[in-house]
Amino acid sequence: MTGADDTDYLSAFRTELGLPGIIDVHTHFMPDQVLRKVWAYFDSAGPLIGRAWPIAYRADEQVRLKTLRDFGVRAFTALVYPHKPNMAAWLNEWTADFAARTPDCLHTATFFPEPEAESYVAAAVQDGARVFKAHVQVGDYHPGDPLLEPVWGLLEDAQIPIVIHCGSGPAPGTHTGTEPIAGVLQRFPRLPLIIAHMGTPEYSEFLDLAEAYPNLRLDTTMVWTDFSEADAPYPIGEHSRLRSLADRILFGSDFPNIPHSYGHSVHALERLDLGDDWLRQVCYHNAATLFGIE
């Protein structure tokens, strides 16, 4: 499904479930020069990617925004992430401006383990940030770094969700996997983490963490798509736990950096056959409750 086929499919999907839209907690909007470097990395199939990864929605910012809205996406994020020091504060300035001119985007911010992190994270919270992004793989840092202690404490107190890529897919990093993030949760048990990509490929281990920590959530980004199933198939035996955690799973797509159509991201969930109520929660209601969307 692409183009008009996607639009028609997603419209029918929303109508059948009685949803006012879709909320996508895992989309990327970045400064143009940064996004183009990200696309170039995907094009090169760099070591953090590991295989050919065509970008399905390579277009100018306004075209990408119109595409999401045409698909019925009612709210989304602008996930940015630094790969080095002295970058996060500048990215936060950009995302604050983007949110101000894009009312359907949840004001997004980020951080990196550096001495200034507490200060600019506090400033972003004061400025109205509603969700943060952390990327352990790309940033190549340990989430338990002492420089992040005040950041985790601040975000736990503020109860602002953090979409965090900490699983070892698509390629393992120095500090990916459940053990580093479990150590953070032991110290900050109320931290409202959203585990990106369901924690791929450590699916079962991250479900264990979700059962142990009630504030932990997971996003569906790319999981169960044909692309993901070919490399890191989700264990069928865990479907019962997907049902029991239905109120803590959120839809994510990775738009625009996906190697398939947007509709396929939704269809991959529909074909799990976990029921209409599960789909309603995952594709809209869980995120609407979390972010206070009417």
From TrEMBL:
Gene3D superfamilies: Metal-dependent hydrolases. It holds the Pfam family Amidohydro_2. This is Amidohydrolase. Transmembrane segments: none annotated. Residues 23-293 form the Amidohydrolase-related domain. The keyword Membrane does not apply. Keywords: Lyase.
